Amino acid sequence: MVLRVYDKDDKIVCILSNNDALLGSFQIDDGMRLHVEDKFLLRKQIDEDTGVGKFEMPLEEYAKRTDSLQAYLKGNKLGKYNAEEMEKREAERKKEEEIEEAKITNFKLGDRCEISVPGQPVRRATIMFIGEVKFKPGKWVGIKYDEPLGKNDGMVEGVRYFECSPKYGGFVKPLYVEVGDFPEEEFNLEDEL
Where in the chain are the domains? Predict the structure, then answer.
């Protein structure tokens, strides 16, 4: 990155290209203008203007290299190259799918429920949709929260799954939905005044 410093009369005072120096170590006064040139963005623009694209190596050639991340992962049997770990993950995924399939058969539209997503507060809601969606794989439960704690109004990426007020709708995996006798919570906001 290069900084160009201009005075009040728009005359160049200095050019700062020493990235280790702090801006305060230079003689800059009120009313001066800083002009920042980001060499990375400039390089990207030049590439776009000249039609020269990013270097890309064919996957077959990359797989033959011994000094790549892929070679390191394969050599140390890490990530997707660890067969045991991948089998364990697949078994966990299948078990989770079976639990979700069993739970979802007990859900009906209009059921009251509590949503317990890890890392988020427990929220009460009403089931408004059950099934597959276009934005993510698997089966999902569309819910209308009792409070405006959701992310949508029942529409995601232009597809309407159900109707509710903005910020009251959401989609959760069946695993985090517990159906039961959960009456709507009453929020008496008059006490707050």
Answer: 2-50, 61-105, 106-179
Q: Is the pTM of this model over 0.90?
A: no
DSSP 81-114: G-HHHHHHHHHHHHHHHHHHHHHHTT--TT-EEE
Tell me which amino acid residue 171 is.
Answer: F
Map residue 152 onto helix, strand or coil: strand
Residue with tokens 């232009």: 158
DSSP per-residue string spanning 118-155? TTS--EEEEEEEEEE-SSSSSEEEEEEESSS-SSBSSE
Q: Confidence band (pLDDT; 50, 70, 90) for 183?
A: confident
Which CATH number does 106-179 carry? 2.30.30.190
Tracing tokens 């639990």 back to the chain, one arrives at 99
